[in-house]
Amino acid sequence: MRIGKRNIGLNASPFIIAEMSGNHNRSLDRAMAIVKAAADAGAHALKLQTYTPDSLTIDHHGGLFDITDPKSLWYGRNLYELYQEARTPYEWHKPLFDYAKDLGILIFSTPFDEQGVDMLEELGAPAHKIASFENNHYPLLRKVAATGKPVIMSTGVISLEDLAGSVSWLRHNGNRDLTLLKCTSTYPSTPENTNLRTIPHLRELFQCEVGLSDHTMGIGAAVAATALGATVIEKHFCLSRAEGGVDSAFSLEPAELKALVIETERAWQSMGGVQYGIQEAENKSINYKRSIYVIKDIEAGEIFTKENLGVIRPGDGMHPKYFDGILGKVSRFALKRGRPFKEKYI
User: Fold this and answer.
1) How do residues 223-251 score in pLDDT, each as one tens digit?
2) CB-side exposure of 307: number of CA atoms within 13 Å?
3) What's the N-to-C CA distance of the chain in angstroms?
4) Tens-place pLDDT, residues 301-318
5) For a Cys staple, 106 with which of 45, 318, 323, 330, CB 3.0–4.6 Å?
6) pTM of the full predicted structure?
7) What CA–CA distance (Å, rounded) separates 257 from 266?
8) Domains of the chain, first to last
9) What is the DSSP string of 56-96?
């Protein structure tokens, strides 16, 4: 699978997506700075969210329209107010796409309605992202699949049966390049509810690329996901948590994003394959294994004992497995302390 010129798969380091979300705080200049910071940190892509409040809900109070959980980052608002604050205005998209292109970082978005897909197609988006809360939105899935572009879909708040239905619907409507992201749709998520062992299971079940949409703090979960076969990592990103933003509390800052890029690549490199025996890179280290050495001057005809022979470093004497069998035997030669022991001395 490819997004733009970037390969996505087990033979490449993880594809790192910096999610801007609403961390621009309603400032285009800040949004531009986030794109620049993501590029400077080495992220492979910057992702937007493309919606208007009216494409998601209605301006209404009462019931589930209000955010009443005191623990929520958005406590006290209704959904419409939240989406009005967090949205990335449509008129910002082209300058952000153009700027990302100038910087050499891929840029695409999460559309939330069919109009958003059309606009992103006009801008030349190389892929489309489906959010967890939209992974049952069959009209949107059909529209995105029909573009023929790679689709990345988060798998939060969905049963396995419904996920299978959504995957089948995408494929039925023309999608051929799919990545599923393990996702826990709590903000922030805890390590305990992240369940990364789902990642290889997703790959096996759906025969597609898999990754992690990570809402935990820090980069530990993302590094662990890489070791379990995640080929895409998505993390929310901001310039500074201290400056606020709708998702800032669980977003990475620039230095952390850079560390994410570096450490997931190291994790991927370290996986390698199944390996036993001595690697070429270890050849010089053989000299520092233990072996049998003369540790005290020995006269010809003297008996070998634990006082005059030892199992020590370096490693150019006889293998230590012969040590017990040599003890009690007689030396054919006079041997100086510090000599690697050879079979011919017996």
Assistant:
1) 999 999 999 999 999 999 998 877 888 99
2) 5
3) 64
4) 999 999 999 999 999 999
5) 45
6) 0.89
7) 14
8) 8-52+87-271 (3.20.20.70), 280-345 (3.90.1210.10)
9) H--S--SGGGB---TTSTTTT-BHHHHHHHH---HHHHHHH
